[in-house]
């Protein structure tokens, strides 16, 4: 290849590389800009004095974002394993389940999912996929029960 | 003194004849049959959506605290707000219906066959964009049903293997629906999808002009008459009269059945009966019939099959004696779609 041909080939390559590099960096920056940066804030909050909740008892805890969480005690050891705190978010596609007293189950209206009182799926797509209602992390410190929940959420109905 | 026309001509050197020449493609006679002109309908409705959408955007405020109130303002207070909102809503409904009908016409007449495979795939992209515009647009209203529809939709995206969680985060602007979600959906709805669609429509129409529409002859046609008629003005008049009929239809629908506003979104409770917009009834019923991952993967598979159908059809026609197998496949598909839609419409759960 002669000198001239080499120079023109090299400058074409440099031009191509510059364009791809320059706009590529721009696109990567735009992608990073659009990717949501901040994970949602969570925190440990006090629920109840362990001693004041008997095995078999349950209560409804209201998180700061307004979500209601069923907390139940099943064992007597006084350890954190005695307690469960069920999420009301359906593991299938994220609708809210509600408790149906007469059927002793949680029901999800979106695709007819149903869950027994311990959160295990007993009907609908969540059952087919073997899913259960999620559980919030719990912790016992100095005889007090704590729960880890989101600290912020969307404005609820009442603020409208 | 030089006349204004002559002045303009000096600066823009085109004349009427050249314009007519540019647009003057001979159009095959079968386009006088209205169902072959269906392709023009979504294009016309697209323009209606742009105009009414820009008007709505003057008052719409995309944030969870303000969105519902601003739609309420548009509906109840702004002068003719109810009209523009209702035309936008009915325009969306008719546009989706028109795209589906147009696609069925193309499918059942085999007009996607060689050399028009690429234009079929561009059409599929337009179908997906239109459905996404319908989905994101409805989510903006921030009423109960649209909020839960968006949540379920985002989680469906999230259950796609591998890239699902990333897609959901990009769509919602976070791990779950949050303060910044609506502005994303709004930009996708009002800027990204329309821009993309303009590009796709330009290429779609350019390819039609380059290849010509598929020629058909019907048995009842006079074989001695010319087989084409001019685009300008004949076909343009057909399209203009479709435009007039659509404007009257849209205004009548908007007046008789104006867009309603349900209760405001409540992120803490899902209503007892939830339904998406009618064009997602099929997928909604599908989701109830099968477990999450299977429903999502099978939907993806069906969409992919539709996308590459011209090649599958070509393969079937080369390898077997069933030259019109596609018609049978199409009839079964249409019946299944109608069946699932009616089923979903008929029951509460
Ligand atoms: C490409 C075709 C489009 C389709 C299929 C479409 C569809 C929809 C739908 C179904 C809604 C919900 C209507 C309701 O329930 O009230 C909506 C709302 C909205 N759209 Fe579009 N749209 C399109 C284009 C656009 C464009 C181009 C803009 C703006 C530049 C726009 C701006 C809006 C706004 C501001 C709302 C919320 C206000 C309201 O609900 O009335 N749209 N759209
Ligand atoms: S979201 Fe609960 S069953 Fe589908």
Plain-language structure description:
The complex is a heterodimer of chains A (160) and B (349). Chain A starts with a helix and ends in a 10-residue tail after the last strand. Chain A folds into 2 domains: 1-36; 42-150, 3-layer Sandwich (Rieske Iron-sulfur Protein). Chain A is an alpha+beta fold and 160 residues long. Chain A is built from 2 helices and 10 strands; from the N terminus they run H-E-E-E-E-E-E-E-E-H-E-E. Chain A is elongated and about 90 Å long. The longest helix of chain A has 32 residues, at 3-34. Chain B has a domain at 34-212 and 231-270: Cytochrome Bc1 Complex, Chain C (Up-down Bundle), CATH 1.20.810.10. Chain B has 14 helices and 2 strands. Chain B has helices at 4-11, 16-23, 40-57, 67-76, 81-108, 117-140, 144-158, 164-172, 181-211, 231-256, 281-289, 292-307, 309-319, 325-346, and strands at 26-28, 228-230. Chain B has a two-stranded antiparallel ribbon. Residues 90, 92-95, 108, 110-111, 113, 124-126 of chain A line the site of FE2/S2 (inorganic) cluster.
Q: What are the salient characteristics of this protein?
A:
heterodimer; A: 160 residues; alpha+beta; Rieske Iron-sulfur Protein; 2 domains; 4-stranded antiparallel sheet; 3-stranded antiparallel sheet; 2 helices; 10 strands; elongated; B: 349 residues; mainly alpha; Cytochrome Bc1 Complex, Chain C; two-stranded antiparallel ribbon; 14 helices; 2 strands; 67% helix; 2% strand; globular; binds protoporphyrin IX containing FE; binds FE2/S2 (inorganic) cluster
- Helix fraction of chain B, binned, reads 55-70%
List the strand order in the largest sheet of chain A.
Answer: 5-6-7-8
Which oligomeric state applies? heterodimer
Distinct bound molecules: protoporphyrin IX containing FE, FE2/S2 (inorganic) cluster
Point out poorly predicted stretches of chain A. Answer: none
Number of strands of chain B: 2
Distance between the termini of chain B: 77 Å
* Beta-strand fraction estimate of chain B: under 5%
What is the approximate shape of chain B? globular
Biggest beta-sheet profile of chain B: 2 strands, antiparallel
Structural class, from helix and strand content of chain A? alpha+beta
Number of domains of chain A: 2
Structural category of chain B is mainly alpha
Chain pair sharing the greatest interface: A-B, 33 and 42 residues
Mean pLDDT of chain B: 87
